[in-house]
Amino acid sequence: FEDMDDGVLGSTGADAYYYVNDNGYLPRRIYPVALAEKLFGRNLNGISPDIHVSMNTDINWYLGTDGDPGTQHDFLSILLHEIAHGLGFTGGLLVDDNGNGWNNFSGITVFDHFVETVSGQPLSDSQIFSQGSQALGDELQSPPIYFRSPLALRELSEVPKLYIPDEWNSGSSMYHLDEVYNSKNSGRDALMTFSSGPGQVIHDPGPITALMFYDMGWIHT
Description:
Layout lengths: L9 E5 L2 E4 L8 E4 H8 L10 E5 L5 E2 L10 E2 H13 L5 E3 L5 E3 L6 H4 L1 E3 L16 H6 L5 E3 L2 H7 L49 H13 L3
Parallel strand pairs: 5-6
Antiparallel strand pairs: 1-4, 2-3, 7-8, 9-10
Helix pairs in contact: 5-6
């Protein structure tokens, strides 16, 4: 728990990232430590926690687990959201103050591997979207952008849509599902949308997020 900016419920970071040369069907990609350990089958970072989660002390939290927070923010819902980021729902793409797009890693994260434009161009393809380019910055601020999930396409006939506002926001852009999922299918896939209000309860990742994780290597290897 710590003091955080107004409106921020929590934030999360992986303790470390590792290259995995072959997870069974993907090429060499960068993985957060929790998923890398799963793929390697061993501990990689000693006694350090795999995921660092910070929660805002100034929020009126409901700490029960019965799903009845009333007008409070449901702590368990937000904690599950943050843990999902630590398990792999994150990547390295960003836009700087000049509107140029960058990859914050020296390689491609497993999440970013699946990210594509509406026309099917991978944002990780440096031949199309070079480091520090206006072209990449423009795409990262031009919805729609999709997570091209083979499993979601097969099982749900849907390609997950990511949250891309017209102006880059480092706390919400790209690494959340689009706000449409707050209402679509009765909100079953709302856990990984970027916003959550008082009284909102989501204790299940939903099928879209689950299938995205399977694609990244939690199941489908």
